[in-house]
Design goal:
Blueprint (H helix, E strand, L loop, with lengths): L18 E4 L4 E4 L15 H26 L2 H8 L4 H24 L8 H15 L20 H6 L1 H4 L3 H23 L1 H7 L3 H13 L2 H9 L3 H13 L9 H9 L9
Antiparallel strand pairs: 1-2
Helix pairs in contact: 3-9, 7-9, 7-11, 8-9, 11-12
C-alpha cells in the first residue's frame, strides 16, 4: 500500500491534510480543494482520478435519489413499505398478462388484410350465405384466399351473428372467442395446481394464461381466426366437471356439430 502526499504548489498556500481511504488494490485520496491548482496533479496513479470522478457521479446520483424520496408523500411511502397482498398481486399479475396477450393479438390483427383471420372469413361468409339464401357449399371467400366452407351446416347457422356485424367488429369478437375459452381450458386442466397455489392462485392463473397464449398452436388460433380452442374448452368442461348442470356429453355433441374432429376418436 502507498499513500499520496499533498504537494505544495506555488501560489496555492496551505491546504488541509488529505483524507486517505485505503482499498484493497490502491489508495484513493479525497482532497478538499481550495479553488486553485490542478486537482489531478497530486495523483500518482492515473486510475485514482477516474475513481474520484466515478465517486463524484455516484454521490450526486445518491443525493438526487434521496431528494426524490423525500418528495414522495408520506402515505405513498408507507404503502410502498407494506407487503404485497395476494389480492393486489393477483390484480398486478392479470394486468401484466393481459398486456402481453393484447400485444400479441394486436400484432396479428394489424397484418395485411388478405393474411388476417382467414378462417374467420370463412365462418362469416357462410353466415352471409345463410342470410341471403345462397348455396352453402358453393360459396368462396374473396381473393386471394378463395377458401370454401367445409364444416357441418349447423356451423353456418352459428356464424350468422358474425355476419350481422362489420368485419372489424367480427375480428374483435373473435378475439374474445379465442382467449375466453383458453382461460376456461386452463381453469379445468390446471385445477390441482391452482388449488395448491392457495391465495396466490390468481397469480398462477395469470402466468399460465400468458404462457399458453404464446404457445405456437394458440398463436395460430389468433393468426388465422380458428375455432379449435373453443372446441377444446367445450370438451374439457364436459369431461372435467364433477357434477355438470347439463347432460354429460352435451358439450362434446355441440363441439362435434360445429366441427367433426371432436367426434372422431380412437379407442
Amino acid at each position: 500500500m502507498t499513500s499520496a502526499s499533498w504537494p505544495r504548489d506555488r501560489g496555492c498556500g496551505d491546504r488541509r491534510a488529505p483524507n486517505v481511504a485505503q482499498s484493497r488494490h490502491e489508495t484513493v485520496t479525497t482532497i478538499s480543494t481550495a479553488g486553485c491548482g490542478d486537482v489531478h496533479s497530486w495523483a500518482r496513479n492515473p486510475r485514482v482520478g477516474r475513481t474520484r470522478q466515478n465517486d463524484t457521479v455516484s454521490f450526486a446520483t445518491a443525493a438526487a435519489v434521496r431528494r426524490l424520496a423525500s418528495a414522495v408523500p408520506g402515505p405513498l411511502r408507507a404503502a410502498a413499505k407494506q407487503p404485497l397482498t395476494p389480492k393486489l398481486a393477483g390484480i398486478a399479475a392479470w394486468v401484466a398478462a393481459l398486456a402481453l396477450v393484447s400485444r400479441l393479438a394486436i400484432g396479428y390483427l394489424t397484418n395485411a388484410p388478405d393474411q388476417r383471420l382467414a378462417d374467420l372469413d370463412v365462418y362469416r361468409t357462410s353466415g352471409l350465405s345463410v342470410l341471403h339464401g345462397q348455396p352453402l357449399y358453393h360459396m368462396l371467400t374473396q381473393v386471394p384466399q378463395v377458401l370454401p366452407f367445409t364444416y357441418p351446416p349447423i356451423a353456418a347457422v352459428f356464424a350468422v351473428p358474425l355476419a350481422l356485424v362489420s368485419w372489424p367488429a367480427a375480428q374483435l369478437i373473435w378475439v374474445a372467442f379465442i382467449y375466453v375459452p383458453l382461460a376456461v381450458t386452463i381453469w379445468y386442466a390446471f385445477r390441482p395446481l391452482l388449488t395448491r397455489a392457495g391465495r396466490y392462485s390468481p397469480v398462477a392463473f395469470a402466468a399460465l394464461f400468458a404462457m399458453c397464449a404464446y404457445l405456437f398452436p394458440l398463436r395460430d388460433q389468433i393468426r388465422f381466426g380458428q375455432i379449435d380452442i373453443l372446441l377444446v374448452a367445450l370438451c374439457v368442461a364436459d369431461c372435467a366437471t364433477a357434477k355438470p348442470r347439463w347432460p354429460r356429453g352435451a358439450l362434446i355433441g355441440l363441439a362435434t356439430a360445429v366441427k367433426l374432429v371432436p367426434g372422431v376418436s380412437r379407442r
